[in-house]
Design a protein that fits this description.
By secondary structure, the chain is α/β, with parallel strands linked by helices. The chain is about 20% helix and about 30% strand. It is built from 9 helices and 40 strands. The mean pLDDT is about 95.
Length: about 475
């Protein structure tokens, strides 16, 4: 079976980004551009990847999945030169086809990849240029076709005639090549002089490779993709914003067509890997990131941030931040709640205003309604936590856990000093600092006896009479 592969070009420095980080790690909807590209290649049926790295190569390499092969372009001498660095990778796929993608053009889609491959194979092409028709083709290489619709040439903006500039079908910068044809073309280019007429090192581009393939009389044509949005890349922050806007609208549209309600999209940003169930409502100011999964019939927002969180059905999140957590069905969270990593919120739990939970398990039906901090704790089911409570989980050097049994009642303004355990159905009195375990069915009072000193203020300076 022929195994196809992909070479992804990610060596560029991206000076116009004005960043200390690699350009390809700049994000679209909170996801690095290179991750968009590798993901769409895999989704399009191409799992064997080689990424050509250059600028800050170790940073890019460490970011990539270890299963992805890399090739180093130590000198940035054009896109054709970049592909040359993956020669050994290409030789291992000599009977297959290779997809060439740019890591800074993140809006390529898997459907275009698979459809263009079918077109490429069906027509027995040596090269298929993935093209698209755009309203404003300025700056892009124009696709010039022969009468039989095969490819005559790709002409760049500065070299195009006035007639050619009117062509709206442009080169996306993505290609399918027959691996053997590509290797042959690379050998022809390498055999030529490596130094330009002015003595500078010569740069090679993918369009040079196509020119060689056409000169060999091999079959070349262009596949016209349906979406013009797969063409633009990001060379600066302005273009990055434009790509974010395109991607944002596409993601919101996808969810709405799948049954998610977004009555007002102001401030709503949803990452590409987020999953949302039917009849869920996303309100303004809500940001959903990472691998977040949301069930059906939820109300998320307004003004909520959810990152890598799994949420059940019929959940309400109002002015809530949740990171790396799990929220079960029918929970009511907010307003002004923060769920820090490893918080597991049970079914029907109510967490109210100004509550922070971290690295804790909260059992079904428990209520933590006001002004509380629960950290490094295991709370059972149907517990009532009064206003202003805190688990004292850190002694300055180590963190310890608090355990509260089912049906317990924690009075207002309690401090539970860990490690400590509260038994099932136990009560703690308001204002208590609990430092010892409380048995089940017991009442714990841990506060000083109230003492009243009459006329103390009158006798205190400066009120003391002379």
């Amino acid at each position: 079976m022929i195994k196809n592969c992909a070479v992804i070009l990610a060596a560029g420095e991206g000076k116009r980004m004005k960043s200390s980080h690699p350009k390809v790690l700049c994000e679209i909807l909170f996801k690095p551009m290179i991750d968009w590209v590798t993901a769409c290649a895999v989704e399009g049926g191409v799992a064997d990847l080689c990424v050509v790295i250059g600028h800050l190569s170790e940073v890019v390499r460490s970011h990539l999945n270890p299963s992805i092969e890399t090739a180093l372009q130590s000198e940035l001498l054009g896109t054709g030169h970049a592909v040359m660095q993956a020669k050994d990778f290409l030789k291992r796929h000599g009977s297959g086809n290779v997809l060439i993608l740019n890591a800074d053009a993140p809006l390529m889609d898997s459907e275009t990849i698979s459809n263009s491959l079918n077109f490429h194979v069906r027509n027995e092409n040596a090269v298929t240029v993935i093209a698209a028709k755009v309203e404003n083709p300025f700056g892009y290489g124009r696709i010039v076709r022969k009468d039989d619709d095969t490819l005559l040439k790709i002409v760049e903006e500065k070299e195009a005639t006035d007639e050619e500039k009117e062509i709206k079908e442009v080169n996306s910068g993505a290609y399918w090549f027959n691996c053997q044809a590509l290797l042959t073309a690379l050998e022809r280019i390498i055999a030529k002089k490596n130094v330009a007429a002015d003595g500078s090192k010569k740069e090679y581009y993918l369009t040079d490779i196509i020119e060689v393939i056409l000169g060999l009389g091999l079959k070349a044509t262009a596949f016209n993709a349906e979406s013009p949005h797969l063409v633009p890349g990001a060379n600066d922050r302005v273009q990055l914003l434009q790509l974010n806007e395109i991607a944002k609208k596409a993601v919101l549209k996808k969810h709405m067509l799948a049954g998610v309600s977004i009555p007002c999209a102001d401030g709503v940003i949803i990452g590409p890997d987020v999953v949302i169930g039917r009849d869920t409502v996303i309100l303004p100011g809500t940001i959903l990131k990472g691998k977040t999964i949301i069930g059906s019939d939820c109300t998320i927002g307004p003004n909520s941030l959810v990152d890598n969180t799994v949420i059940g059905c019929n959940v309400t999140l109002n002015n809530t931040q949740s990171v790396d957590s799990v929220i079960a069905d029918e929970a009511q969270i907010g307003p002004f709640v923060r769920l820090r990593p490893n918080s597991n919120i049970g079914k029907g739990v109510r967490v109210g205003n100004f509550v922070e939970i971290k690295n804790s398990n909260i059992g079904d039906g428990t209520k933590i309604s006001h002004l509380s901090y629960i950290g490094d704790s295991d709370f059972g089911s149907d517990i009532n936590v009064g206003c202003g409570c805190a688990t004292v989980n850190y002694n300055g050097s180590t963190k310890s856990r608090t355990v509260v049994g089912n049906d317990a009642f924690i009075g207002c303004h309690n401090s539970l000093v860990a490690p400590v355990s509260i038994g099932e159905r136990a009560y703690t009195a308001a204002g208590s600092t609990i430092t010892e375990d409380v048995p089940a069915d017991s009442l714990a009072l841990a506060r000083a006896r109230q003492v009243i000193k009459k006329d103390w203020v009158k006798n205190k300076s400066p009120y003391k009479k002379k």
